Every structure is written in structure tokens, then in C-alpha cells.
Amino acid sequence: MPKANQKTTKTKNTTKPTGSKSTPQLTTSGRMYIKATFNNTLVTFTDDKGNVISWTNTGSVGFKGTRKSTPYAATTTIEEAIKKAKEKGINSIQVYVKGPGPGRDAVLRVLRNSGLDINMIADVTPIPHNGCRPKKPRRA
Q1: Taking a C-beta distance cutoff of 8 angstroms, is the pair 100, 125 a contact?
Q2: Over the range 99-126, which residues count as b (16 or more CB within 10 Å of their CB) and which as e?
């Protein structure tokens, strides 16, 4: 029993375990997805299962406004993404290109000089099979 002039404090273990972000296992092969729109270019690297390893776009590289939609911005973005992927240990990739933007042509030039083993380049741009229903003709 505590005496009259002593204070009692119950101490709880209030410290939570510090959980760090789960780091994915280093893989040597992966996939590179490039979405080239008219306004932006997005590059994503994934492992073979589809888990994202690294990504970048023209805005995160430092381009703003209409400069984001230039082939130079796309080239710089793809070089930055390849540098990040090499740091994670990727050596061979499969490339999937989607969209009509200026990044399409820039991809092939950069990949040729990147030093990565390219197993496949595929165009996965969605193409409409006859598209939407057209508007009815105007009666005047």
C-alpha cells in the first residue's frame, strides 16, 4: 500500500510498434506500362504479379502546363522512371504502351539506349469496334 504522501502512477505500454512500409522483394524482371495522353505521360513499373514498384509522370519530373505534353517531357519522364527501376533491381522488362500522345515515339528512342533487356513491346491502346451510336440526323 502506498503511503499518504506518495503518488501512484500506473504505467501502460502505450508505445505502438512502428510499422515501416513493406518493401517489395527485389526482382530482376518486370513490366513497364506507359500511358501517353495528349496532355501527360505516365510511366509505371510493376513486378510480374502486377505490384507497383515505381512510377513517375511528367508533372513529378518538373514540367508544368503545356510543356507536359511535349516529346521532350515524355523522354525525360521515361529516363527518370528507368533510373528508379534500375535502383530497385529490374534488368529485363515487358513494355506496354497505351494512348496516342507524344510519349509513344519517345519510348522507343529511350528504351533503345537504356541498357535494359526488352522482352516484348505491346500496343494496348483501346480501339473501338464501331464506337458509340452516332447522333440522329438533323432535320431542318
Answers
A1: yes
A2: bebbbbebbeebbeebebeeeeeeeeee
Q: What are the structural domains, with CATH classification, of the chain?
A: 29-123 (3.30.420.80)
C-alpha to C-alpha distance for 124 and 94, rounded to whole angstroms: 12
Compute CA distances 23 → 35, 52, 65, 102, 123, whole Å. 25, 11, 34, 33, 30
Q: Report how far residue 37's alpha carbon sits from residue 82's, in angstroms, rounded to the nearest whole number.
A: 19
**End-to-end CA distance of the chain, in Å?**
99
Amino acid of residue 38: F
pTM for this one? 0.74
Task: Give φ, ψ of 41 to 5 degrees.
Answer: -135, 120
Model confidence pLDDT, tens digit, residues 75-122: 999 999 999 999 988 999 999 999 998 888 888 889 888 888 999 999
Q: Residue 89, by phi and psi: left (phi above 0), alpha (psi -120 to 50) or beta?
A: left
